[in-house]
Amino acid sequence: MALFTTAAVAIEATERRPDRVGFLTRHAKTLAVLRSLTVSGILALATVVAIELITRGSVQQTYAYLTNLEQPGWTTTGVFFLLYLALDALIGRQHKAVLLVSPLVILMGVISQQKQVFLTDPLYPTDLLFGRQILELMPVLVQDRPWTAAALALAVAAGMAGLIALWIFAWRRFRPLTRKERLARLALAVPLLAGFASIMDYNEFSWMRDRLKVFPIMWDQAENYRHNGFMMAFAINLPMANVQAPSGYMVDAIDKIPSKPLPAGTTHRTKPDVIVVMSESLWDPTRLESVKLSADPMPVIRENQGGNVFSPEFGGLTANIEFEALTGFSNAFLPTGSIPYQQYIRKPIPSLATFFRAEGYTARAIHPFSGWFWNRSSVYKAFGFETFKDVDKMPPLAKRGNFTSDEALTKEIIRQADMQEDPFFFFTVTLQGHGPYDDGRYTKTDITPEGKLDARDNRMLASYAQGVKEADQSLKMLMDWAKNRDRETIIVIFGDHLPPLNTVYQNSGYMKGITASRKGTAEQMKKEHETPLVVWSNKTGAEKDIGTISPAFLSYYILKEAGFEHPYYTGFLGAVHDKLRVIDRYMLIDAKGKATTDWSRKKTIDPLVRDFRFLQHDIMFGKQYGLERFFDSHAELMSAGY
């Protein structure tokens, strides 16, 4: 901001000098306009420099961005220049626009930089939809990092004071624009900005955008932001809310998708109760080979583990894993950065809840946090859950650390289950495992890490391992309860993503950085994205040899374990599962473990994957041509007016 002020003051001081004779006298107004435009250009450049320095964290990379003619550094500067001209014209005073725009975009840059530190990805436009959730978590972050919070509060206060002072200074010192100047600026800037906006849809090729070196790299957002710069990449991602149909999607394409006929009658043994637990940040810390733990934190999970879930996320974005697990659809077919719970679930969507309800089950979601978080209240209703028990609809539950304990939540699950007469399907999301895992979260930890980690990393890992131990003990409590029940009870537990352990991964040698990679070999990606999976029945024991699967295939295993058949969840999805185990945005892994990278960019796509994509788009965004054939139970509920 100091750079902006210095430039503006220098020009204003020049404009107040007495007019020189000769050329300067005759062209004083023209020179004043040129000086004003020069300042706007300097301020636009300063804005871009500030944003890139913050988001890249490197002077060298920022310099390269602005000097490499194959990158759109100067295009971005030009856009800011035009934006400043237009806003100054609307305000009626020169150089005021920078005081409106620069604080906002710099704040966005800071948020993006912090998001990259903790969640790998930069800031996407859809992230702005859940700003309230960040505010809700602020008390927890303040409690764990009081000095950081205090410093941040002081910085915000100082920034606001400085901004107010600049506004007062600008109003007194910046020259008002004449009516002619304002019209001229609008006539120049508005058409150019409108034209630029019209070429930013990444779904359409633009010759002009190509000449400006703006290249949408949607399949690799890290490279997208590196090449195009923060603001340009952010703008490129704006159209992601408008999901276009995949090429070839039409009613004939849906009609041609084969479906297995259901056997006569039903195939299930009884109607077992089903409890699915998505355990927050559940992972196996003994995978850190360079670190030895004093005890196994998850003996029950290890004994019953049948495979792993290949999480499409790392350290957060729980709702995306939840979306796949409940719908059997895949994030791989949605625009990068999408959060379906926030963007796309605006109408009834088939899910495990609608299937079980059609079978006479009670379908209930349970989560000990606010219902608005991740838009769950609305989404669960759209998924067909009859009830959603959030923190406000349950009795007060004991906490461990900052969040509701797994033990208390498990007892509440048992209490609610014991009240049911009809068979039930419970989907539960735990909370205790949520980060951060700083020292002091628990007054006492039972597991001690030993190895090459420093004291801070050891304390963080000990805190996390304590949470895993208590999640494991809670699973044992739930299984012991189920063993005493007459009705068959199926329990499924899995982790949503690896925990955000910060430097533990890097310092232990488990990962190169503090966050997981988005692209890599199959071995590397499994290492950085696998979480434990248990599928267990009180009658038949644990399901083994599941292997590593995408969350979208969980519905297949749940229904197969319960003895049900379904046109989509065991039929079509079963056919996909027979060939593929992992469907990720950047990689397919087949049943034999063979990986296909960058599959979405190839000229030909596996017909099963193509049909999977068609069917998902048809149900979520299209005309639902395949609803009655593939989701008959959902269609029946819809016709009954659920």
Question: How would you portray this structure in words?
Answer:
The chain has 642 residues and is α/β, with parallel strands linked by helices. The protein has 27 helices and 16 strands. Strand 14 and strand 15 form a beta hairpin. The longest helix is centred in the first third of the chain and has 29 residues, at 28-56. It starts with a helix and ends with a helix.
Secondary structure: elements and pairs:
Elements: H1 2-15, H2 23-26, H3 28-56, H4 59-67, H5 73-91, H6 97-119, H7 131-144, H8 146-173, H9 179-198, H10 207-211, H11 221-228, H12 230-236, H13 251-255, E1 273-279, E2 291-293, H14 299-304, E3 307-310, H15 318-327, H16 340-343, H17 352-358, E4 362-366, H18 376-383, E5 387-389, E6 399-400, E7 403-404, H19 406-418, E8 424-429, E9 449-451, H20 455-483, E10 489-495, H21 503-508, H22 522-529, E11 530-537, E12 541-542, E13 547-549, H23 554-562, H24 567-579, E14 580-583, E15 587-590, E16 595-597, H25 607-620, H26 627-630, H27 632-639
Parallel strand pairs: 1-8, 1-10, 3-13, 4-5, 4-8
Antiparallel strand pairs: 2-9, 3-11, 6-7, 10-11, 11-12, 14-15, 15-16
Helix pairs in contact: 1-3, 3-4, 3-5, 3-6, 5-9, 7-8, 11-12, 17-27, 19-20, 23-24
Question: Could you list some keywords that capture this structure?
Answer:
642 residues, alpha/beta, nine-stranded mixed beta sheet, three-stranded antiparallel beta sheet, 16 strands, 10% strand
